[in-house]
């Protein structure tokens, strides 16, 4: 089997697992159900996944890693504070809209991870929160934002993250428009007068 077909099959299995975990929960989805949905026997399934927790880890960490890379790029780009925050918000909402099942699994199920898997996911999530704090701190240092409580980052991310529950990407409001509306409301409240 070529590396390409292995990677493609593994990616397909991870996608199927994300959908099943999002719909039925991590603990509510058995290996037999995964195997059936993937059209593979148990042995073949384990060849691709290693373990059910490995799937949960990959689903949980992949999108957070993507958002960390996105934030790092934006933070290093020299954007003005407002453009930086808007870019971070738009990137997150686009990712959530494109990977809704994966985010549902992340938000609801990452606590089922154990040991180093859990530690790495929590560290990646905290790193992402830190990038938002850096962006806000930069705005304060530049004199365009007033100082805000450190917990505001969790509030901002809560506002954006939980769109996975209700946002319809094909609805009348697009991801960028929604991100701008959220950022307008936020920035009007913390912009330096």
TrEMBL record:
Protein's UniProt name: TetR family transcriptional regulator
Lineage: Bacteria, Bacillati, Actinomycetota, Actinomycetes, Pseudonocardiales
Record keywords, A-Z: DNA-binding, Repressor, Transcription, Transcription regulation
Ranges annotated as DNA-binding: 30-49
Sequence ranges assigned to domain HTH tetR-type in this UniProt record: 7-67
GO molecular function, one term: transcription cis-regulatory region binding
């Amino acid at each position: 089997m070529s590396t390409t077909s292995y990677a493609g099959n593994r990616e397909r299995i991870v996608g199927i697992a994300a959908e099943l975990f999002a719909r039925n929960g991590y603990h509510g989805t058995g290996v037999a159900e995964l195997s059936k949905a993937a059209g593979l026997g148990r042995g073949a399934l384990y060849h691709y996944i290693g373990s059910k927790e490995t799937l949960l880890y990959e689903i949980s960490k992949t999108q957070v890693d993507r958002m960390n890379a996105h934030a790092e790029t934006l933070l290093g780009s020299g954007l003005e504070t407002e453009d930086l925050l808007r870019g971070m918000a738009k990137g997150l909402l686009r990712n959530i809209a494109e990977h809704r099942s994966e985010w549902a699994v992340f938000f609801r199920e990452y606590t089922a991870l154990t040991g180093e898997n859990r530690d790495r996911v929590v560290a990646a999530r905290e790193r992402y929160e830190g990038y938002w704090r850096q962006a806000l701190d930069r705005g304060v240092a530049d004199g365009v934002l007033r100082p805000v409580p450190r917990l505001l980052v969790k509030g901002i991310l809560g506002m954006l993250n939980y769109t996975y529950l209700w946002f319809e990407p094909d609805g009348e409001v697009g991801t960028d428009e929604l991100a701008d509306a959220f950022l307008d409301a936020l920035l009007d409240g913390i912009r330096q007068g």
